């Protein structure tokens, strides 16, 4: 993972002094440059493309496929099961403390429920539905996406036992990884892990607050009672996270090997930003801007958006306020919002391949590539943010993005997002899709227990490893799975034992789904989530 506060590779670092002066100077300069220097270029690139309101069948098909992975990952008593090789599982999760934690989703190819990345999955899925709900509807996947989201939020509600107690994990990863079995056949003990005032976990509590706040907006119209319940939990979890500050990696050392956190400040801002969108309560905006923006906001130093680092996500999300909803905010808040927006733009400049600030962290085939473990997470996350920011620019009539002497249009950002989506879907040196079930060629040996073991096989914890070692392709297709991705030389080893490249995560599916939904068509984004 990239440590929080560490710059994106090759991204220029802004000086951490004279911020307000810099904002005013840059704003004037960009306005003059856009208005006087390259207006013909900007004007000609203002829209994405001719006829772009039509549904793109490629992305529509890929989105429908991706959305099925959430069904594969479901725990609990399944309802309207769409996956023939999946059944009920985890029905006793939480019973030892009198809770129903049977729902939720398994993290990856294993049978763990890790609350931190699961909550992130819910936040991203909510964000996509809020920004591109019309596109989800146009491909008839809107209700399906809502159902998947609610499967997670039902679990998160039950996991929040009291104001300052949150269960963040079901299962022991050490015990779980000694087994290779179908979720329906689980028999090992499933211990629970909680955070509380004595053993805090600010980043997990704050991410869960963000997930519930974002989801409350999704369900505000179809189910106002459920929306209010989510918002009630979100407020309490944010208070818990902010009052009892401490990293869950310290309180729960066993997570360091699996989902180690590099800090919690970004999650506090991320949660505050979502709570502001959900409530319009000025406290949360003031918290994220005047009170903590400079200290926690990582202004001007781009980092990679992921389950662990929400800095750039917050910068883009608060740019939305600057673009559309800054009326009534104080001058101090407006200046801080401008800093969030400039920071988001700095990240966009890093992504654009011909920008003076362009990162070299990409494969020869053009995929953003940060590290060997799960590189597609970073590519999909970056592309998702780029496309969202492109939509903000279009909707607000913002013609250009300034990157060290060059101007770029919303279409340039969208084209970058398309390049990342297309690579994942098979436009790569290997001509292989990294989305299982899409195209003629995709991974056959995905590191996924349920997919690798035949439904009629009778196996226990340890004797199921015969299926891990099998040389035959998976008998069950994990449709919608987004594997980790290629090495930096664009190569990929399709082996079930290659968990580094071949294990799909639920949040990968959420990030890719969010990206694809935005590319289905170019319908306008809403100026307000409420």
UniProtKB/TrEMBL annotation:
Q: What stretches pass through the bilayer?
A: 20-42
Active-site positions on this chain: 447
* Entry GO MF terms: cellulase activity
Q: Which UniProt keywords apply?
A: Carbohydrate metabolism, Cellulose degradation, Glycosidase, Hydrolase, Membrane, Polysaccharide degradation, Transmembrane, Transmembrane helix
Return the InterPro entries for the record: 6-hairpin_glycosidase_sf, 6hp_glycosidase-like_sf, Glyco_hydro_9, Glyco_hydro_9_His_AS
Tell me which residues make up the Glycoside hydrolase family domain: 59-516
Q: Which reaction does it catalyse?
A: Endohydrolysis of (1->4)-beta-D-glucosidic linkages in cellulose, lichenin and cereal beta-D-glucans
Per the record, the GO terms for biological process are:
cellulose catabolic process
* Pfam families named in the record: Glyco_hydro_9
Q: What is its EC number?
A: 3.2.1.4
Q: Which family does it belong to?
A: Belongs to the glycosyl hydrolase 9 (cellulase E) family.
What is the name listed in the Swiss-Prot or TrEMBL entry for this protein? Endoglucanase
Species for this entry: Kalanchoe fedtschenkoi
Q: What lineage does the source organism belong to?
A: Eukaryota, Viridiplantae, Streptophyta, Embryophyta, Tracheophyta
